[in-house]
Amino acid sequence: MFTGIVQGVAELASLERKSNLSTLGICLPPATREGLQVGASVAINGVCLTVVRWDDQAVYFDAMIETLRLTNLGGLQQGDQINFERAARFSDEIGGHLMSGHVIDQVELTARQELDENNLRLEFTAAPKWMKYIFPKGYIGLNGCSLTLGEVEDNRFSVYLIPETRRATTFGEMQEGTRVNLEIDPQTQVIVDTVERVMASRQSFG
């Protein structure tokens, strides 16, 4: 599990593409690598990946074909910047909301508004099927970052970023048209799906 509090931005140092598999070499900071073991989980742009090896230059992760298809990891190029977070421990403070690292889809950044020197508004467009889980003031995971939703209308939603979030993540320099990994709040999904099943059951019995 992850807290959704991105620990920083790192560079994709190497990218090895094989048949239905890519190996990503990420330059994680030395402090982040302390105690890291093969088999450990790290969220890369919100995607839970497993450490397969490391050397002096990078930590390496394998991404399978389904991960590459469903997430923005498939479109990464060497030198790109990514958000990262190591898996949470039982003693960690949950400053965001619990996230699994299981990305369900990608959304597109369709509007970027610099409201003032301290506030940035980002608007995203999502597939209509996900909008039933997205509510104003609810939680959402975008590229591994736990964010509070602002406005929600039709198939669009917005988030507002403070300077620290801009500094610690890739959102600070993100341009319109960028594809971003989406993880919805699992508790919200369970509630919505349960209500839908109950309502459908009642309707079927008249």
From TrEMBL:
Transmembrane segments: none
Repeat positions for Lumazine-binding: 1-97, 98-195
InterPro entries: ATP_synth_asu-like_sf, Lumazine-bd, Lumazine-bd_dom, Riboflavin_synthase-like_b-brl
Domain of life according to the entry: Bacteria
GO molecular function, one term: riboflavin synthase activity
Pathway: Cofactor biosynthesis; riboflavin biosynthesis; riboflavin from 2-hydroxy-3-oxobutyl phosphate and 5-amino-6-(D-ribitylamino)uracil: step 2/2
Broad enzyme group: transferase
CDD domains: Riboflavin_synthase_like
Catalytic activity of the protein: 2 6,7-dimethyl-8-(1-D-ribityl)lumazine + H(+) = 5-amino-6-(D-ribitylamino)uracil + riboflavin
Keyword Membrane: no
Limits of the Lumazine-binding domain: 1-97, 98-195
Gene Ontology CC, one term: cytosol
Enzyme Commission number(s): 2.5.1.9
Known role: Catalyzes the dismutation of two molecules of 6,7-dimethyl-8-ribityllumazine, resulting in the formation of riboflavin and 5-amino-6-(D-ribitylamino)uracil.
Protein name: Riboflavin synthase
